[in-house]
Amino acid sequence: MKYEDITKKVIGCAMEVHSRLGNGFQEVIYQRALEYELELNKIPFSREHEMPIFYKENKLAQGGLIF
User: Fold this and answer.
1) If we measure between CA atoms, which residue out of 20, 12, 46 comes closest to residue 29?
2) What is the DSSP secondary-structure string of 1-35?
3) Taken in order 51, 56, 57, 58, is the CA torsion positive or negative?
4) Which of 4, 35, 47, 51 is the most exposed place for a label (fewest CB within 10 A)?
5) 67: nearest Cα among 49, 43, 42
6) What pTM did the predictor assign?
7) How many other β-carbons are positioned within 10 Å of the β-carbon of residue 21?
8) In 3-state terms, what secondary structure has residue 16?
9) Is residue 14 within 8 Å of residue 34, measured between CB atoms?
10) Three-class SS of residue 6?
């Protein structure tokens, strides 16, 4: 598979964040922790891009933030 290795690494980073923080924090805390883990693992990324939002091929909005 083309993206199998990177997918495993990203999931591993997310699992590390979850295992250390658990439940109950605001989303921004998990975003920052995941950003830190991705940097530690030298996985390139970028945050919060504006994207059009579609529902059943109907464009609902422009500018939804996607992590």
Assistant:
1) 20
2) --SHHHHHHHHHHHHHHHHHH-S-S-HHHHHHHHH
3) negative
4) 4
5) 49
6) 0.74
7) 13
8) helix
9) yes
10) helix
Q: In terms of residues, how long is the chain? A: 67
Classify the C-alpha dihedral 58-61-63-67 as positive or negative.
Answer: negative
Task: Pull the structure tokens for residue 17.
Answer: 């964040």
Q: Measure the CA–CA gap between 29 and 62, rounded to whole angstroms.
A: 26
d(CA 10, CA 33): 13
d(CA 48, CA 21): 22
Is residue 62 classed as helix, strand or coil in its secondary structure? strand
Per-residue pLDDT of the chain (67 residues; tens, 9 = 90+): 689 999 999 999 999 999 999 999 999 999 999 999 999 999 999 988 888 888 898 888 776 554 4
